[in-house]
Backbone:
């Protein structure tokens, strides 16, 4: 098999900004293109191979402006070769059409949410996050047309049905990359527990690689468990603004550095961006 994750390697994704974390929650959240690029470079130097990107306008609000995404990409590319993965989740203020705009900025990867969820708290309580099968198809077809690899995000066991449906259509290239997001109760994710993660991993389709994302206080526990199970991991201020209980994280790079230390204690080295491209089949 020409790709797949070796047991002594781990691919680390950093999710730096997100749709709901703001500087009012943690002043270290990077919002503008220069901040995002500087943070991406610091995370690259610590061992991150993939940078998951949300764009904000000058007022700090979620944006689908292609020019902002391109600005972020260009600034990052001037500094390093980290894999750029744009978010098509966008934010609750963006429409379906706006959420897919980022693909025009030509990232190597993009997130693909694999089911509809209901927001149960906050200012958008009661507003569904729509990812109907036909909407998923529109997104994945646009990614395939542009040569962008989907990172399929699942928040519960049920979303695996959509993953299997896409695989059955023979539109996706192996390995299938699946991000298991746990602990985000705000959007209906299953609890971030070892039992939940292990159960989902056991049910993944053949030829899959998985990434583990733990939200909030569960971040470190879940990514450690994910590495033990042979997966890739995601950390960053999008998912967790704290370094420890009551202690705000100083930067995304600080969170990346911690997971690299844990990985090395487990006998794993962080994959470089080029190694990750090979394992994920981005060069094929």
Residues:
């Amino acid at each position: 098999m020409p790709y797949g994750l070796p047991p002594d390697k781990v691919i680390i994704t950093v999710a730096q900004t997100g749709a709901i974390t703001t500087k009012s929650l943690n002043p270290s959240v990077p919002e503008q293109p220069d901040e995002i690029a500087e943070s991406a470079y610091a995370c690259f130097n610590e061992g991150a191979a993939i940078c998951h990107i949300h764009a904000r306008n000058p007022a700090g609000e979620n944006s689908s402006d292609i020019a902002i995404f391109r600005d972020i990409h260009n600034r990052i590319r001037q500094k390093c070769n980290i894999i750029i993965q744009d978010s098509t989740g966008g934010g609750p203020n963006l429409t379906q059409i706006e959420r897919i705009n980022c693909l025009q900025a030509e990232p190597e990867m993009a997130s693909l949410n694999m089911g509809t969820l209901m927001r149960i708290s906050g200012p958008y309580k009661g507003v569904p996050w729509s990812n109907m099968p036909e909407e998923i198809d529109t997104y994945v077809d646009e990614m395939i047309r542009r040569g962008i690899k989907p990172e399929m995000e699942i928040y519960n066991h049920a979303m695996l049905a959509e993953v299997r449906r896409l695989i059955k259509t023979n539109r996706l290239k192996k390995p299938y990359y699946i991000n298991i997001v746990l602990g985000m109760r705000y959007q209906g994710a299953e609890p971030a527990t070892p039992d939940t993660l292990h159960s989902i991993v056991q049910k993944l389709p053949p030829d899959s690689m998985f990434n583990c994302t733990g939200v909030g206080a569960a971040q470190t526990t879940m990514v450690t468990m994910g590495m033990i199970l042979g997966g890739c991991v995601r950390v960053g201020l999008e998912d967790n603004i704290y370094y420890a209980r009551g202690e705000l994280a100083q930067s995304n790079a600080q969170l990346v550095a911690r997971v690299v230390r844990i990985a090395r204690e487990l006998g794993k080295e962080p994959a470089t961006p080029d190694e990750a491209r090979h394992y994920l089949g981005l060069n094929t």
